[in-house]
Amino acid sequence: MDKSVLVSADEFARFTEYQASLKSTIPSSLNESGKPTSCLVSSSSKWVIDSGATDHMTGDTGILSSFSSHTNLPSVTLADGSMTSVVGSGIANPTTSISLSSVLCLPNFSFNLLSVSKITRALNCFVSFFPDHCVFQDLMTRKIIGRGRESGGLYLLETPSMKVPKPIACSSTLTPLEVHYRLGHPPLSILKKFFPNFQSSSYLDCETCQFAKHHRVSNLPMVNKRVASPFELVHYDVWGPCPVISESGFRYFVTFVDDYSHVTWLYLMKNISELFNIFCSFCAEIKTQFNISVGTLRSDNAKEYFSHPFDSYMSENGILHQFSCAHHPKMVLPRKKIDTY
């Protein structure tokens, strides 16, 4: 037996207000945790990529070109099960590379729907969906012709109006020197092109750039670059061993260069042990032919120049031995180019 409930007029008025507030609530959807999340209520410029739509649809005739009215088109069944008529169709160009033909215009329709089945057939492309975006690619060339991004559980087609310019490099609160470090030490003139607020800067005090532009310290100028008489200073150097032995079996040679005249004596050697005897022969030849003794001998730091026979011979004949500092090849007379035949 049904029971009746009696309410007062005041209670009925409050109940009516409660029902009205439920109808005016913005629709929502539930996420995986069961909490309500906001959903897209209307879209005047955004295109929703819909894999369940059979046709492209919009309610805004302003975004359609070549719009034509129709009265004999069948009605469209919406997602909520209601039926609506089609007032016409046209062409939409949401991006420069995507053109949508036969877009149906529905009265009082708040969304722009992009049909996946329609666009894949019309543009001969395929759509790949990812957790946060999707891409449209040509079937033959695999060239990307469009992109979409996930927003509120829906994939929205990326249009020029949705692209927000991003900062080129970093925040403008950084100093010019900090930006100079982070971008790999570009000159100030380049930084001013990317950061207009750096126009007032006139100098970058970067120690690294200053050291990088330094040249090697040149040798101090010599007071007397040339000696006053022949054989006052003789340079000598040994070259070898040669990777290819000559027909006579020679692998080394030693040069003696007079600093005054730059005349060069060259002696071939089969073994480095012959150096001392050749040196004695050279000194004897200079003494006999020019009636003058070698005053100073200059060489590098090779160990063959510091043997006991060398030291003894130069001490007995009053010859001074000068040698260069380590890792300073410029202190030794440059080797001459010698052509061998």
From TrEMBL:
GO terms for biological process: proteolysis. The keyword Kinase does not apply. It comes from the Eukaryota. Residues 226-341 form the Integrase catalytic domain. Keywords: Hydrolase, Protease. SUPFAM superfamilies: Ribonuclease H-like. Coiled coil: none annotated. Signal peptide: none annotated. GO terms for molecular function: peptidase activity. It holds the Pfam family Pol_BBD. This is Integrase catalytic domain-containing protein.
